[in-house]
Amino acid sequence: MSKTMQSLVDIPVRNVRHDLAESLRGYWYGGDPGITAFYNTLSIIFPHAEKMVIDSVKHYENDIEDPELKAEVKGLVGQEAVHMREHFVYNKALEAVGVDVEACEKPFLDYMNMLREKRSPEMCLAMTCAIEHYTAMMAGRLLEEPDYLKANAPKEQFDMWMWHAAEETEHKGVAYNVYTDVTSGAGAYFRRLHAMNLATMLFSWFMIRCIYMLLKKDGKQRSLKAWWNVFDLMWIKPGVLRKCLGRFAAFYLPGFHPWKHDNRADLQRWRDSREAA
Q1: Is this prediction's pTM over 0.85?
Q2: How confident is the model at residue 5 (pLDDT cuts 50, 70, 90)?
Q3: In the chain, where does DSSP find H-type helix?
Q4: What is the CA radius of gyration of the chain?
């Protein structure tokens, strides 16, 4: 594997904890129910996506000979394990204020379990590459433009999401490095394209369904303002997804690698601010 295709940064495991219970008692994102539901939905599905990442990469742990890639995998697994713990705590706090997390997460969890049971390890790893690219794209946008979150979120929420975004960026190339290390040929290329198509359709449905359920809890599922604000955040201002379209399309190129979008400067800015704090 070429050095240029390795991760460009170290992948430290930070054993951090966040106390978010108080903020989750209300619409923590600037008093907005729609965008608050969007972020809460991410937290609800993240632990299951992160378990998929860990399981699919560790499946090939003994097949990897490159010591640097082995070290990358260790960093990825350590970071994702802490992410899982923190989002489980987040989701427990949601349950404490009346959110039916189990009902929200069930279709996503069922699909992740079906992948493990019915699909090949190669397909599970390809899905992991797609999942990791989605999180890396959105994490990259947050690192590039953190002010919209900072202006609307309490400090503990801002710190948690920025930490998660930074670590998703640090390990964004690892699953893909494993995939290219253990698979090859046209089959591997078309498999990951299929995985990205599936991930796009499924994540869109899971996200919309769960946001609807969270809004329904407070009788706001028909609030045009709530839904518009989510759309605005994603596609207009700041346009998180709109600004990711080029990076999304890049996944379909034969020569794709996550670090071809080199955002080390944005990552370093977060690291510097964290050290200063």
Answers
A1: yes
A2: low
A3: 33-58, 67-96, 101-118, 121-144, 147-150, 155-170, 174-182, 185-217, 224-231, 245-250, 264-276
A4: 18
